[in-house]
Design brief:
Layout: E1 7-13, E2 17-24, E3 27-34, E4 36-41, H1 44-52, E5 58-60, E6 63-67, H2 72-78, E7 83-84, E8 86-87, E9 90-91, H3 98-110, E10 118-124, H4 138-153, E11 157-162, H5 163-171, E12 179-184, E13 189-195, E14 198-205, H6 209-220, H7 224-233, H8 244-269, E15 281-286, H9 295-304, E16 312-317, H10 324-339
Parallel strand pairs: 1-10, 10-11, 12-15, 15-16
Antiparallel strand pairs: 1-2, 2-3, 4-6, 4-7, 5-6, 8-9, 12-13, 13-14
Length: about 350
């Protein structure tokens, strides 16, 4: 079948958000769902109230599961944390409801394939830093296989794309897909270095937005969900940050940046491939955790102050940080298919 008759989709399977990207004219159209849920007691009164507000729910074993964005107000009212289908970038296998909820959220967002050749790229985390080349921890392998089967059952030809590499595909077509893509997600920070579309290295670091939320929540005595909502709505790294919540979030952001830069330096210094790169490389930053004002500037200052075995040409934010991974998965599927 020809390239033009294929239908392409990109999906960012994030710990915090699932994002679906599809072509639209000369650009893209994206839609997303909060990758979370909450359980409330199943009573006639609860069902009646939810039905009156037209809030969807699923009755399971004496509880009502409320998925996605509809779960947030309940978490705030009851002062409890949201349940997450994923933890540290992978399916939360300690939660018996996680796979069913994740499948439900993903199917509602992506929908079943409607075309004869529907090609889909979906994001997966890279193996943790320090993993031997060619190896993949069982939890990561299981996560990838579960997602691939889920999309295949929806009728797609599904291909896994490492999250950091998706950032490269979203942003660096003009450099021949050469550069460093960093996705600051909720569960992990994913890093990928590509040279002329070929992967040089990719790894993940076990901290992200959830680390900031849970750590600052523990310091302030708040719930993580409230710290996340505050961080995403009102927090800035350029503000004076006088209140306890802002001060705690600020300090944990600085700690995250130092942690990632140290992780990059360690990985680069241990790699024999880095030394042979013959050009300065761009660094592109994406992900919801990178969204606060001032983040990119602080990260650039930290990485340029570190002695690295490669030259950096620029450090910039992705054009669409929240959707870059999904767009990159779409571009990966399209670019690699067109070469086939």
């Amino acid at each position: 079948m020809s390239y033009m008759s294929s239908f392409f989709t990109g999906v960012d399977m994030g710990t915090s958000r699932i994002v679906c990207a599809r072509p639209s004219g000369d650009g893209f159209i994206t839609k997303s769902a909060l990758n979370a849920y909450i359980q409330v007691k199943d009573t006639p009164a609860a069902r009646q109230a939810l039905n009156a507000r037209r809030i969807g729910y699923h009755a399971v074993g004496g509880v009502l599961e409320i998925d996605g964005a509809s779960s947030v107000p309940f978490a705030q009212v009851y002062n409890v944390d949201l349940k997450r289908t994923m933890r540290l970038g992978c399916l939360n296998n300690h939660d018996s409801a996680a796979l069913e909820v994740l499948t439900r959220l993903t199917t509602a967002l992506v929908e079943r394939a409607q075309f004869g050749e529907s090609i889909l790229g979906f994001s997966v985390p890279s193996a943790p830093a320090g993993t031997n080349p060619g190896e993949e921890p069982p939890v990561f392998m299981h996560h990838r296989m579960v997602l691939k089967r889920m999309f295949e059952e929806l009728g797609y030809e599904a291909n896994a794309v490492q999250e950091g590499e998706a950032v490269v595909y979203a942003e660096l077509a003009d450099t021949g897909y050469t550069g460093l893509g960093i996705s600051f997600g909720a569960g992990l920070v994913n890093v990928a270095l590509n040279y002329m579309a070929l992967p040089v290295m990719a790894f993940s670091l076990e901290r992200g937005g959830d680390f900031i939320d849970s750590s600052s929540a523990e310091v302030t005595g708040e719930k993580s969900v409230r710290m996340r909502l505050f961080k995403e709505s009102r927090f800035s790294l350029t503000a004076e940050n006088r209140d306890p919540a802002s001060r705690a979030i600020h300090l944990f952001y600085l700690d995250l940046i130092d942690y990632v830069v140290e992780g990059l330096a360690s990985a680069f210094n241990e790699s024999e491939s880095i030394a042979v790169l013959d050009m300065p490389i761009p660094v592109v930053i994406a992900g919801g955790t990178s969204m606060p004002q001032g983040f990119v500037q602080l990260f650039e200052r930290a990485i340029r102050a570190k002695e690295l075995p490669l030259e950096i040409s620029e450090v910039r934010a992705a054009r669409d940080p929240l959707n870059a991974v999904a767009i990159g998965c779409l571009e990966y599927a399209r670019a690699n298919r067109s070469r086939g």
